[in-house]
Automatic annotation (TrEMBL):
Coiled coil: none annotated. Its main location: membrane. Residues 481-506 have a biased composition (Basic and acidic residues). It is a single-pass membrane protein. Pfam families: APCDDC. It comes from Desmophyllum pertusum. It is found in: Membrane. Keywords: Glycoprotein, Membrane, Signal, Transmembrane. Residues 481-511 are annotated as: Disordered. GO terms for cellular component: plasma membrane. This is Protein apcdd1. Residues 1-24 form the signal peptide. Residues 28-258, 259-462 form the APCDD1 domain.
Length: 543
């Protein structure tokens, strides 16, 4: 009897020490990338006109196609006017300025989206005045020669200084497309924008995206299909570079501090930080994993393609594996390294029934075998040499450009080369990119647990017309609006919505509100169970 009692006590103690488990999985990087907006709490307002009033700056030295090294500052006012600075530099760390542009004008933002980028807002930025500030004699001579050759009578000297003159641009002559291209100015970047905000965060965390800069010179007016690196508020948290760029002017451009070059060592896992847009107009998120052995270096990629601009409706997943070589310093972009990636095997997992139907209708032996595709089932496409339906060929080789940096929070960032505007792949060294995409972040930076999104929509009880209970006809007083039917405050609505219960299809009750509060309720129930176990121990010990 004593042995039995001892075993029961051990069981109760073990149950008390074991923590409660949650159905949500641990914070795995792959799941975070798959549900990027849900995991990171990102929001965009597609149907409304975003509020972009304020001062925005670059968060680092940006690399544009060419390459061109620039920093940007733009101040947007409520009276539909704006002004900004575009500073160009000689080096990749933006420490040697060569030319600055001071621009002013009017702007208009529409609630309609640009045809080439879903989820964006169509914008129009007009220029009323542009001033050029060359910072050395060579840049001044270059600007004068370009003006004389392509658009005469465009520059007018406003004032002279010891270093260089200040020029005012003739707006009427500058409207010619040939003149703008000669100065390397692209107005297509102002034709589309997107504002991202974080849920339950202030405006300091907002990011403003403008249209991409084309990688090649277009003969016609370019319509952007993706975005540049985002701009941040000048008072963003831990962003000393933002404050420095904001303090710069035309005569005194900002000079960013030089940092020692960071060697690109590919290892570990890297993931997207937002819903990205490729040059083809599709939405995707990326996940890379690099492993090095004594014999070879391997890499694995996961591309999640979506149907919407918020990366919520999953279309299909591309999983590729291969090897990579390189780590040679770039001669074009200082601080970057040249790599060669070979994709040897690949598999596709369709998630949308329409995509599954298209794969089954593909020509035989061109995409993993037609007629055998199933939704949410992975299928290898290595045997058929890729998938012509999606433009994938195996084996595939890409000559890429990589760079590493750190964000203001100290997390490591990986910049991968920007894809060409025409959608072509960097299949040769001459097509190697000279600019970068939106950076990837190291997966170890995600310090939170991943909680999958709910499959059913969250329902909240109505507070506008609460349940009246039993109404006595004689006591009912006819009135246009009763005091007890007024709308509750926002905080009351949120409190009621967090612990909402709902009947499922199987007639079982389940929490459909916030998972965080559901977990808190579970912890409270577990605490009550602990108390019952303690009482049981006191009952068992005398026995």
């Amino acid at each position: 009897m004593n042995v039995t009692r001892f075993h029961l006590v051990l069981i109760f103690v073990w149950m008390l020490l074991v923590p409660p488990t949650c159905e949500a999985s641990e914070g795995k990087c792959l799941n975070i990338v798959r549900y990027i907006y849900h995991s990171l709490g990102i929001r965009i307002r597609v149907s409304d006109i975003p509020n972009i009033v304020g001062e925005w700056t670059s968060s680092s030295c940006e690399v544009r196609p060419g390459p061109q090294f620039v920093t940007r500052y733009i101040k947007i006012l409520r009276n539909a006017t704006w002004e900004g600075y575009l500073h160009r530099y000689n080096d990749s760390q933006c420490s040697e300025p060569k030319l600055s542009l001071h621009m002013k004008g009017f702007y208009k933002i529409s609630d309609e989206e640009l045809e080439s980028i879903k989820g964006s807002n169509k914008a129009f930025f007009n220029f009323t005045s542009i001033e050029l500030y060359p910072h050395n004699d060579y840049e001044q001579e270059t600007a004068v020669n370009v003006s004389t050759r392509h658009c005469p009578n465009t520059l007018r000297v406003v004032r002279s200084s010891r270093s260089a003159d200040v020029f005012e641009v003739n707006i009427r002559a500058f409207r010619k497309r040939a003149c703008r291209k000669a100065f390397g100015f692209s107005e297509s970047e102002f034709s589309a924008l997107k504002l991202e905000s974080l849920r339950k965060k202030g405006s300091r965390y907002n990011k403003l995206y403008f249209g991409e800069i084309p990688t090649t010179r277009m003969t016609r007016k370019h319509k952007p299909k993706s975005y540049q690196l985002p701009l941040q508020r000048y008072n963003a948290n831990n962003c000393t570079v933002c404050m420095k760029i904001r303090s710069g002017t035309g005569p005194r451009p900002p000079k960013l501090p030089q940092k020692p070059p960071r060697v690109v060592l590919l290892n570990g896992e890297w993931a997207s930080t937002t819903c990205e847009v490729n040059p083809g107009g599709g939405f995707l998120t990326r996940h890379f994993q690099f492993t090095k052995t004594t014999n070879e270096s391997k890499w694995e990629c996961h591309y999640y393609f979506y149907l919407d601009a918020e990366c919520k409706k999953l279309d299909f997943e591309l999983n590729g594996k291969g090897i990579f070589i390189g780590s040679n310093p770039s001669k074009v972009v200082a601080g970057a390294y040249e790599y060669v990636f070979n994709m040897l095997t690949a598999a596709i997992t369709p998630f949308d029934p329409v995509t599954t139907r298209l794969l089954n209708m593909a020509t035989e032996n061109t995409c993993g075998g037609s007629g055998s595709w199933k939704t949410r089932h992975r299928k290898d496409i290595t045997v058929t040499g890729g998938c012509k339906l999606f433009g994938i060929s195996l084996p595939h080789t890409e000559y890429d450009l990589l760079k590493m940096d750190t964000n203001p929070q100290g997390h490591r960032l990986l910049y991968v080369g920007q894809r060409a505007s025409d959608g072509s792949d960097p299949s040769s060294p001459s097509r190697r990119p000279t600019s970068f995409q939106i950076p990837l972040i190291e997966c170890s930076s995600f310090k939170f647990k991943f909680v999958p999104p709910t499959t059913r929509p969250t329902t909240r009880p109505t507070t506008r017309f609460p349940n009246q209970g039993i109404v006595i006809p004689i006591g009912t007083i006819p009135t246009s609006r009763r005091k007890d039917m007024t709308t509750r405050r926002r905080t009351d609505r949120e409190t009621l919505g967090k612990t909402t219960h709902k009947k499922n299809d199987d007639n079982t009750s389940g929490i459909t509100g916030n998972v965080k509060f559901a977990y808190a309720n579970t912890a409270a129930s577990w605490l009550s169970c602990k108390l019952l176990m303690i009482l049981s121990i006191f009952i068992v010990i005398p026995w």
